[in-house]
Amino acid sequence: MELKYKGKALWKITGIVWLLVALLNLGLMLFLFNGFFGGFELLLTPLL
What we know:
The protein is 85% helix and 0% strand. By secondary structure, the protein is mainly alpha-helical.
Protein backbone atom coordinates (compact mmCIF):
# COMPACT_ATOMS: atom_id res chain seq x y z
CA MET A 1 0.00 0.00 0.00
CA GLU A 2 2.88 2.34 0.77
CA LEU A 3 4.32 1.97 -2.71
CA LYS A 4 0.93 2.67 -4.31
CA TYR A 5 0.50 5.74 -2.11
CA LYS A 6 3.95 7.00 -3.03
CA GLY A 7 3.14 6.44 -6.69
CA LYS A 8 -0.07 8.45 -6.42
CA ALA A 9 1.74 11.23 -4.55
CA LEU A 10 4.40 11.29 -7.26
CA TRP A 11 1.74 11.58 -9.96
CA LYS A 12 0.05 14.38 -8.00
CA ILE A 13 3.33 16.29 -7.74
CA THR A 14 4.04 15.69 -11.43
CA GLY A 15 0.56 16.92 -12.34
CA ILE A 16 0.93 20.06 -10.22
CA VAL A 17 4.33 20.85 -11.72
CA TRP A 18 3.01 20.26 -15.26
CA LEU A 19 0.03 22.52 -14.54
CA LEU A 20 2.29 25.29 -13.22
CA VAL A 21 4.55 25.02 -16.28
CA ALA A 22 1.52 25.10 -18.60
CA LEU A 23 0.17 28.22 -16.87
CA LEU A 24 3.58 29.90 -17.06
CA ASN A 25 3.83 29.10 -20.77
CA LEU A 26 0.32 30.46 -21.37
CA GLY A 27 1.12 33.64 -19.44
CA LEU A 28 4.39 34.10 -21.33
CA MET A 29 2.64 33.54 -24.68
CA LEU A 30 -0.03 36.14 -23.83
CA PHE A 31 2.67 38.57 -22.62
CA LEU A 32 4.69 38.18 -25.83
CA PHE A 33 1.52 38.40 -27.96
CA ASN A 34 0.43 41.63 -26.26
CA GLY A 35 3.96 43.04 -26.44
CA PHE A 36 4.30 42.20 -30.15
CA PHE A 37 0.94 43.68 -31.15
CA GLY A 38 1.12 46.57 -28.67
CA GLY A 39 2.97 48.67 -31.23
CA PHE A 40 0.28 48.04 -33.86
CA GLU A 41 -2.63 49.16 -31.68
CA LEU A 42 -2.76 52.56 -33.38
CA LEU A 43 -2.77 50.90 -36.81
CA LEU A 44 -5.46 48.36 -35.86
CA THR A 45 -7.74 50.82 -34.03
CA PRO A 46 -9.42 52.15 -37.24
CA LEU A 47 -10.01 48.55 -38.39
CA LEU A 48 -11.77 47.50 -35.17
